[in-house]
Amino acid sequence: MKTIHTFVATLALASSAAILCAGMGFGFGASNASTSGPKIEGTYMLEYRETSDGKKIVAPEIVGMLSYSKTTRNFNVYWMSGGKPSSISMVAQYTLSEKEYTEDCMYYAENMDGKGITYNTAATHGVSPVTMKDGEIQFTPALHGEPMLSISKNGMIATKTGVFTDHWKKID
Prior knowledge:
globular; single chain
């Protein structure tokens, strides 16, 4: 009988320790990965652009898609500018913390105002400060003269002051 009581007491103690460890994120199938820090992963579709003069532009005059995985970014946008097609496409790796956005561009292509496409596959590196404000992550990617991005759980606003504001919806 004493052996059964000892076994039950040991089992109770081991179970309590396992529950405590799991609750603290140690072993027993719990992930040790940090869940803190900003997250921007997802796919964003461009809904519309507002120009500095208040005009609203929608598809098919402007079309865009942006995807962020945990480590990479794929960006494509097309619009008409003065009746001529313009587009930007890029592939990059990135890191994001509460203080800084770092991007290493592997591929960049642009066709501005129908002048013809130019390609750049030279590795470029940029770092920009990050601001966390009202549940939004804000930064301006340091490469290619991009607009300031403000990303929330529902989507993204890309603002190039005095030029345009793009409204992107998060679709996944």
